[in-house]
Amino acid sequence: MLPSNAFAPVSPLLRDRKFALVVAGTAGVQIALVSLSLPGWECPFFRVTGIPCPGCGLTRAVILLLKGDVPGSLRFHAFAPILLLTAVSLILFLVLPRSITQPAIAKVELLEQRTGFTVIILVGLILYWLARLLFMQTAFVQLIRG
Amino acid sequence: MLGILAMLVGIGCLICFVIVLIKLFQNEGALKGILGIICGLYTLVWGWMNADRLGIKNIMMIWTLLLIIQLVLNFVFGVAMIPGYPPNPAPVVP
């Protein structure tokens, strides 16, 4: 039995501050480690199979985006701006008082349910990954391998 | 020898990841499952936050231990997570 918010995955994440804080914290540590060229989280799928997963390259794409290298970032992963926007929203929701965030979260939830934008983004991400694997596999793997 | 160890640790991590990912799909639906595939860190955090409720504490402990071993192996033997990053490191001027 799936939860009622199965098709609105972002709003519960924003509502659960503890979970959001841990996710944002680990993501921040990961970005810091990679930008310092230190070992961090490695994609278990890519490490074993040699095939990049749909999220491979996102960390580097976000770092390049933060440095202002938009073309370089998009070359690594086209969804980096969306991820960065989500991360910034997550931090804002963590920092702002509940009196402001609660109505905003309700609006996000309603928007998710009505427009299905999260579904569209996630399906788009999977299609983007499949297209990269099918039509530019060698270049994609080499790009991720570094 | 170290290569084999790293490979075994990698396979162990993948197995734990898949187990937690299946739990994520079963409990939270397809969308969060896809989110878990894209962002393994999300799966790791979700797994720990729900470890007691789902009875996967042992899996999470094994996975975390394997991740620490992987980090130590990478760090000690000088293999950065992403080879070639940063793309153009500044030359060391004596």
Explain how this protein is built.
The complex is a heterodimer of chains A (146) and B (94). Chain A has 146 residues and is mainly alpha-helical. Chain A is globular, with a radius of gyration of 17 Å. Chain A is 75% helix and 0% strand. In chain A, α2 (17-35) packs across α6 (80-95), α4 (58-66) packs across α6 and α8 (117-135) crosses α9 (137-145). The model of chain A has no long low-confidence stretch (mean pLDDT 88). Chain B is mostly helical and 94 residues long. Chain B is built from five helices and no strands. Chain B has helices spanning 2-28, 30-38, 40-49, 51-54, 57-76. Chain B is elongated, with a radius of gyration of 16 Å. In chain B, 36% of the residues are buried. The A-B interface holds A 2-3, 6-7, 9, 18-19, 22-23, 26-27, 30, 33-35, 37-45, 47-48, 53-55, 58, 60, 118-119, 122, 125-126, 145-146 and B 7, 10-11, 13-14, 17, 27-32, 34-35, 37-42, 44-46, 48-49, 67, 70-71, 74-75, 79-86, 89.
What is the structure about, briefly put?
The complex is a heterodimer of chains A (146) and B (94). By secondary structure, chain A is mainly alpha-helical.
Secondary-structure element pattern of chain B, one letter each: HHHHH
Gyration radius of chain B, rounded: 16 Å
Q: Give a count of the beta strands of chain B, DSSP E runs of length 2 or more.
A: 0
Number of helices of chain A: 9
The chain pair with the largest interface is:
A-B, 38 and 39 residues
Instruction: Report the strand count of chain A.
Output: 0
Strand-residue fraction of chain A?
A: under 5%
Uncertain runs of chain A with pLDDT below 50, 5 residues or more? none
Determine the fraction of residues in helical runs of chain B and give it as a percent range: over 70%
Largest sheet descriptor of chain A: none
Average pLDDT of chain B works out at 81
Helix-strand category of chain B:
mainly alpha
Q: How far apart, in Å, are the first and last alpha carbons of chain A?
A: 42 Å
